[in-house]
Specification:
Layout: E1 2-6, H1 13-22, E2 26-30, H2 44-47, E3 53-56, H3 65-86, E4 90-96, H4 105-119, E5 124-129, H5 134-142, E6 144-145, E7 148-152, E8 155-156, H6 161-174, E9 178-179, E10 183-184, E11 189-190, H7 191-202, E12 208-211, H8 216-222, E13 233-234, H9 239-245
Parallel strand pairs: 1-2, 1-3, 3-4, 4-5, 5-9, 7-12, 10-13
Antiparallel strand pairs: 6-7, 8-11
Helix pairs in contact: 1-6, 3-4, 5-7, 7-9
Length: 247
């Protein structure tokens, strides 16, 4: 197969590229560094010539609902239009578990993206994944102040980004499936515990304080609204196994 990967240098995208090549596929990486701009729409049509499937892992650093929605609707419409013109037979979208239950601006953008894909003319697969193991590192970076590290008490079932990449390639190979089961890690975790272990592994000084942060998003995560359902497909790498590899 000839597979195009949008966001092919990102946290998951680079693993998609690696997995696809390991499985013998020809890969086209849709990034600005390869003269493909999904927002402006430049270079997309030429890049999709002869492509059998597109895997969309493109991401944006947008937290407001308006900004996230604008990015994901624009890029998705650009991809779908180019795919239809090029005769691409399968569009695979990476989404996030629980975005229809947890109120958060970025999630609003991902929901809008899902709707665009479902309404489009290209046969599709949408797979929602839980937070990656790197989520703890993101939280640690955002919530460390003057040597104090805040650790939100929220529930997650973290999954390895490389396993998400492999799963997306498998789904691309299998053909359009509409809504695919959620994909999550092998066990549930409290993010505060993940951050505590991460800070220790990094040798960081200062207290790690488990806190219940305000806001509807964190309240939803404490309720378990972003956890996968019982029919989820589970990866194998635990957070602790991932952490051991980072040292």
């Amino acid at each position: 197969m000839r597979i195009a990967v949008a966001g092919g240098t990102g946290t998951v995208g680079r693993h998609v590229v690696e997995a696809a090549r390991e499985r013998g596929h020809e890969v086209v990486v849709l990034t600005r560094s390869n003269d493909v701009d999904l927002v402006a729409g430049t270079g997309v049509a030429a890049a999709l010539e002869g492509v059998d499937a597109v895997i969309d892992t493109a991401n944006a650093n947008a937290t407001s609902a308006d900004a996230a929605t604008a990015f994901f609707t624009t890029t998705t419409r650009t991809l779908l239009a180019a795919e239809q013109a090029a005769g691409v037979g399968h569009h695979v979208t990476l989404s996030i578990v629980g975005i229809d239950r947890a109120p958060y601006g970025y999630y609003a953008g991902k929901l809008a993206q899902e709707r665009e894909v479902e309404a489009g003319a290209v046969p599709f697969t949408i797979m929602r994944a839980s937070q990656f193991h790197e989520f703890a590192e993101q939280m640690l970076g955002m919530l460390s102040f003057a040597g104090v590290h805040l650790a939100p008490k929220i529930a997650t079932q973290p999954v390895a980004a490389w396993e998400v990449g492999q799963r997306l390639v498998e789904l691309a190979e299998q053909g359009p499936a509409g809504r695919s089961p959620d994909f999550a890690g092998p066990q549930r975790e409290d993010v505060s515990g993940m951050i505590r272990r991460l800070a220790k592994a990094r040798g960081l000084r200062g207290p790690v304080l488990a806190v219940a942060l305000p806001g509807k998003q964190f309240a939803a995560m404490r309720r378990g609204d972003t956890l996968p359902g019982p029919d989820a497909v589970l990866g194998t790498q635990t957070f602790d196994a991932w952490l051991a590899e980072q040292r």
